Amino acid sequence: MHEFKQALATKQPLLGTFIKTPHFHNTEVLSKLGFATLCLDAEHAPFDRRDLDTCILAAKANGQHVLVRIPNDHHETILNTLDLGADGIVIPHVKSAQQLEHIVKQCYYGHNGRGYAGSTRMAGYTTNNMQQNLAHNAKNTAVIAQIEDIDALDQLEAICQVKGVDCLFIGRMDLTVALGETDPNAPNVLKTVAKIVEVANKYELATGMFIANLDELDHWLKQRVSLFLLGSDHSFMLAGAKQLQTKFEQAKQSQ
């Protein structure tokens, strides 16, 4: 089993970040730094299939684990993403156990499941045999369900019992909006996030989240949240540029 999937199963702390730029350079650069994973955000950024292809290739060239947050849960979207060699997917707006069961089936080979092709990047372009490809798919594919809708809250117990899902990723910003709030730190939002973590822990299912305030890290780690996708290539560029501007202004004023 891939160390990332194994780490999710044992709830080891994992740090990744989002990639918002659909050009392989950003993926290539960030894959030099040793993140547990990079997540290409094809839900909110303008990735097409060619962009995913080159960005996944850039990650693989550097031995980097790579996830894709896909824009929908359609069969062809899941199939194309995994065939390109992504190590797993983050599926937005998972609302029910039935929906998640269908998604999981599309991620794995088998009856009425993922379509098989031995000519893809994932399959080594025909250099791996079918037995190797089936084993790789079963042991290495990470399936991460994003919980961000009120509908999902009523189905949490059932969702956590779906076989084949590796992690629930909490979409706190969408939950904030869904709950009628504008502050992700509103008591109702925090209570809801804590409830999701509590139910997932009950079933020994890993949870993950994005947080804007890194001061929260210690709290959520103590609650056994394990996967943190923090920041993005965009935020790193902005932070670096702002730091440069601040340093320059400070230097000017000291003259």
Q: Could you list some keywords that capture this structure?
A:
255 residues, alpha/beta, TIM Barrel, eight-stranded parallel β-barrel, 12 helices, 8 strands
Strand and helix map with partners:
Layout: H1 3-9, E1 14-19, H2 24-30, E2 37-41, H3 49-61, E3 66-69, H4 75-83, E4 88-91, H5 97-107, H6 130-140, E5 142-147, H7 150-153, H8 156-160, E6 167-170, H9 172-178, H10 187-202, E7 206-209, H11 217-222, E8 227-232, H12 233-253
Parallel strand pairs: 1-2, 1-8, 2-3, 3-4, 4-5, 5-6, 6-7, 7-8
Helix pairs in contact: 2-3
Structure, explained:
Keywords: Lyase, Metal-binding. The structure is a single chain. This protein is an alpha/beta fold and about 260 residues long. The protein has a single domain, classed as TIM Barrel, CATH 3.20.20. It has twelve helices and eight strands. The protein has an eight-stranded parallel barrel with strand order 1-2-3-4-5-6-7-8, surrounded by seven helices. Helix 4 links the parallel strand 3 and strand 4. The protein is globular, with a radius of gyration of 19 Å. The mean pLDDT is about 95.
